[in-house]
Every structure is written in structure tokens, then in C-alpha cells.
Amino acid sequence: MRVTVCRKAHFNAAHRLYVKSWNEKKNESVFGKCSNEYYHGHNYELIVNVTGNVDPVTGMVMDLKDLKDLIKSEVEDAFDHKNLNIQVPEFADLIPSAENIAVVIYNKLVPHLDKEKTLEIILYETPRNFVKYSG
Ligand code: NI
């Protein structure tokens, strides 16, 4: 019996979408305001879905307290109130688009889960724009 447990989390972060090898004009034409050289912020909403077998003894897929603590240590502590381009090493040479942020979050969380579990990341950059990644 496989069930998905879900945890919502939140972080605020600044970023800039910018390809270093392009000039300002090209960056602005592709990324628009998101390429503003002074950065801009988003209120990111994160949903982490973990699917696994229900333990017959505990009745749980995983302890949601453990998932909460994992998201805090791996994502919130690393990203919240940070400039992603400058302060988060994963984005030193990777554009911090919502797509790439979701992949980075997935890659930070998945090593901590049992192999039988599957992980899905849903990341809202705005209330209407969101991305999903599940490996
Ligand atoms: Ni943006």
C-alpha cells in the first residue's frame, strides 16, 4: 500500500536570471525584469511529496516531523533570506530559475530518503507559476 505524504514549506529569496556569456540586451530580451541587475525577490512556496509503503506497525510512510526537520536543514536554512546567485553555492554556475531550484532541492533531499520512497518537488515562484520535478 503506497501513500504520498506531503509537507508544505516556505522561503523568501532573491535571484537574478542572467547568462554570463550574453550581453545585457540579450539577457533583458530573454528574461525581462527577472534579469534586473539589482536582483528581485520571491516568496517561494514549496511542496514536498514523499510516496512510500505504509509501515504496518507505525501506520506511517515517514514521520512528518522528520520530513519537516529535513526540509528545514536542507532547504530553509540554506535558501531563506538569501541571494541565491551569490550566497548559495549550487547556483554559482547554475541559473536559479524555478526549474533549477526545484532540481537542486530534489537533489538535496533525495539522499536522505529510503530507497523505496519516491520524491516529488513542487515549487511555486508566484501563486500562479510553479514547477514540478520528480527525478
Ligand atoms: Ni524572478
User: Order of strands side by side in the largest beta sheet?
Assistant: 3-1-2-4-5
Bound molecules: nickel (II) ion
Structural class: alpha+beta
Main sheet, how many strands, which sense, barrel? Answer: 5 strands, mixed
Give unreliable regions as ranges: none
Please give the radius of gyration in angstroms: 17 Å
Protein architecture, described:
The protein is α+β, with helices and mostly antiparallel strands and 135 residues long. The protein has one domain (2-133): Tetrahydropterin Synthase, Chain A (2-Layer Sandwich). Helix content is 30%, strand content 30%. The protein has helices at residues 24-31, 64-79, 84-87, 98-109, and strands at 2-15, 40-53, 82-83, 118-124, 130-133. The chain has a five-stranded mixed sheet with strand order 3-1-2-4-5. A hairpin with a 5-residue loop joins β4 (118-124) and β5. The model has no long low-confidence stretch (mean pLDDT 96). It binds nickel (II) ion. Nickel (II) ion is lined by residues 15, 34, 40, 42.
